[in-house]
Each structure stands twice: as structure tokens, then as C-alpha cells.
Design goal:
Length: 385
């Protein structure tokens, strides 16, 4: 959705060195930017580190947008708008490319224009590589220069990560439009001086340290469909917000506990189960894993009426093989005992061994009575002949 490749050579410069020398006396921004560090200005980081301090959780859905452990542009801006107090405008926005039309339909044509403001949404129409060209992209406007010709953006890129960058009007990455859903206007100070630097709730908290990885992973209590994973607590320089669980590398769930029961698994199957720790700013630890298997699938035996047979002493139409079907018995030979409740005495009337999942050996010929088998001691269904 937001994998547009751009040339950032004109953007990767010092944060306060964007104005030409002649205008250096006037501050660039309408308020003092707080420092940040997330891999370099304009660099995409394969995590949510560049969105630190916003509280964005990429695994939580906002306004019905898709989630991804490394982020998604529409889910991120929906979170920022929700945090600013905006009401969800529509039941479904779809890809970023459709956001402009939804905003104009709900808020009027003036809600989308070429004028940036703090809290507005930078919007790009269809662009990029084949396959994602029609998806579009959105980002959050953190700051606007005094002359309105530069914006400081924070972005989440679907499946790729996050970044912060400065874009000037005329750059190839300048947004196609700005969507004004719930802007956060800031008073413009006198030109002679910027206001004192104060904590900004929309700025990164400065927590760039990932938690330690969970330790002492242990898989236990396997059943045919569940495995319980437990681990030791992770630590963080601020606080661990929770843990994310992975099955064969795919994210499954999150928890604040130090154990989790994986369910809906297939019997007799091996799984790679992993867990990582994350903090409130989206920093994540590595994800250690263990391999564990569910319990073997339960053995079962079924008996049914098989092909008709005419043997000496059994001339009626009821004479037929008892078809024995085995499930989950594995390889090797298995002892089969055939039973019937008529004629007296009731009980076993033949025994044999088989290594096949299906066999036709016992013959029975008395209609209206019951037959069954036991295979390695496991009893089948009772069949009315």
C-alpha cells in the first residue's frame, strides 16, 4: 500500500539546516521540533521505532484498517486521527487511494486541498510499482514550516516499517493533497522568536531501546490440538507492554501474561512456536522459539459391510466380508479380533493380523444381528448386519 520508492538525497540533511543562508534568521518551524533518532532522517526502519511516543500499536485495528506487525499507513493515520478526537467518517475506507474521495464526500470539497497543517493527513494517489500502484499512501503531518513549503511527516509502511522525514514543495515526494479531518492547529509565535521548547504529546518519547528477549521458553501440556508455551519475563528500560506470539513465524496473538495456549492445531504435527516482547513505543525484542509437537492423533476403528461372498457353509445373501478400517494406527502389524452376538455363544469368532489400513478377512452371514471388531484392544462401532 505504501511502498513508494523515492529519492531522498535532497531530504537527508540536518534537521535545522533546510533554510537557505539568507533566511536562516527565521526559524523553519512554527514550533520547536523535539529531537528524534530512528535510523536517520528519511530512512525506513523495519519496526515502529520511528513512531515511538505516539502509542501506535500495529497489531491493533483502527477504523477497520488492516494490521501488520511492521505497520500499515492507513491503520497508523486512523490511530492518530482517533487520538486527536476525530470520529470515524465511514464504515470502510479501503486503500489509501480512496481516502480523499471519502473525506470530500463527508466533509466537503474544501477538506482536501494543497495546504498542509499540523495534524492533517498527507495523501498520495495511485503511484509506485506494479501491484501496489493503485493502493495510494497516507502519512501524518507532524510540523509545517512557517512558509508552508516544507512538512515534517511520520509514516508507517505496510509490512516494511516506519520513518520520519522532511519534504519540501517541489520534491518528487511532495503529497498530492492534504486531508483536513481533525487538524491540530498550533498558535504561531512572533517571527522574532520561537516559543520555549515544551514537551509535545505528539513527539517521540525518546524510548528507542527494545525490551530484552523472553527467556527459558518451554512447551508443555500438548494435546491433539493445543500446546502451552511459557517463558521468563522480559525487561525494558521503561516498561514491557506485552508479548506477541508466533506460530511457524506468523503472528498469532498478544498477551500480557508469560504463558499462552496455542489452540486449533493439527494432531501429531510439529510447530515452531515463538514469542517476542514489545514496549509502549513499538520497540520489539528478538523472538526466540522452540519446536514442539501436538499429541498423536487418536486411533479409531470402523467396521462396515464389505463385498458379498459365497463360501462353503455360507450360502445366504447376508454372507459378506466385514471391512475393517483403521485410522492413525501407524505402521506395523495389528491384531484384529472379530466378534458377533449370534449364533450363541456370543463373542469372538476369528482372529488375524494386518498391516493395512483396510482389510477384508472375517466373513459373517446372519442378518439382523450385531458384529464388531477390536484392533490392538481398541473396539470399533457395532454394526447391525
Amino acid at each position: 500500500m505504501n511502498s513508494r520508492k523515492v529519492v531522498l538525497s535532497s531530504l537527508v540533511v540536518a534537521l535545522f539546516g533546510l533554510l537557505p543562508a539568507a533566511a536562516s534568521a527565521a526559524p523553519l518551524w512554527s514550533y520547536t521540533p523535539s529531537p528524534f533518532s530512528c535510523g536517520g532522517l528519511g530512512a525506513i526502519v523495519p519496526s515502529n521505532a520511528c513512531l515511538g511516543g505516539t502509542g501506535f500499536n500495529p497489531n491493533k485495528q483502527y477504523w477497520g484498517q488492516a494490521t501488520n506487525p511492521r505497520g500499515n499507513c492507513t491503520n497508523y493515520v486512523a490511530y492518530r486521527l482517533e487520538r486527536n478526537g476525530a470520529n470515524r467518517l465511514a464504515s470502510s475506507f479501503g486503500n489509501a487511494v480512496g481516502w480523499k474521495s471519502v473525506v470530500q464526500q463527508k466533509l466537503g470539497s474544501r477538506a482536501a486541498n494543497g495546504i498542509p497543517s499540523v495534524g492533517s493527513i498527507a495523501w498520495w494517489g495511485a503511484y509506485g510499482a506494479p501491484g501496489v500502484r493503485a493502493a495510494g499512501h497516507v502519512a501524518y503531518v507532524e510540523k509545517v514550516s512557517r512558509d508552508g513549503n516544507a512538512v515534517y511527516l511520520s509514516e508507517s509502511h505496510f509490512g516494511l516499517g516506519s520513518r520520519r522525514l522532511i519534504v519540501r514543495k517541489g520534491d518528487s515526494y511532495w503529497p498530492d493533497s492534504f486531508l483536513h479531518i481533525k487538524d491540530q492547529p498550533r498558535p504561531r509565535p512572533p517571527v522574532s522568536a520561537d516559543p520555549p521548547s515544551t514537551p509535545d504529546p505528539e513527539e517521540p518519547s525518546g524510548d528507542e531501546s527494545a525490551p530484552s528477549a523472553p527467556t527459558s521458553l518451554k512447551a508443555s501440556s500438548p494435546t491433539s490440538s493445543t500446546i502451552t508455551l511459557s517463558w521468563g519475563k522480559a525487561t525494558d528500560d521503561v516498561a514491557v507492554a506485552g508479548y506477541a506470539l508466533y506460530r511457524n513465524g506468523a503472528p498469532i496473538a498478544t498477551t500480557s501474561s508469560t504463558s499462552y495456549k496455542f489452540s486449533g492445531l493439527s494432531c501429531g504435527t510439529s510447530y515452531k512456536l515463538g514469542v517476542d516482547a514489545y514496549d509502549a513505543t513499538g520497540n520489539r525484542s528478538s523472538a526466540p522459539s522452540v519446536t514442539a509437537s501436538t499429541a498423536a492423533c487418536a486411533k479409531s476403528v470402523k467396521v462396515s459391510k464389505g463385498p458379498q461372498v459365497n463360501v462353503s457353509g455360507c450360502k445366504s445373501s447376508a454372507c459378506a466380508y466385514m471391512t475393517v478400517s483403521l485410522a492413525n494406527f501407524g505402521s506395523g502389524s495389528h491384531a484384529v479380533t472379530c466378534y458377533a452376538d449370534y449364533p450363541p455363544p456370543t463373542g469372538a469368532f476369528y482372529q488375524y493380523t494386518t498391516s493395512s489400513s483396510t482389510s477384508n478377512v472375517c466373513v459373517y452371514g446372519y442378518a439382523g444381528t450385531h458384529v464388531w471388531v477390536k484392533v490392538d484392544g481398541i473396539e470399533s462401532n457395532h454394526l447391525t448386519w
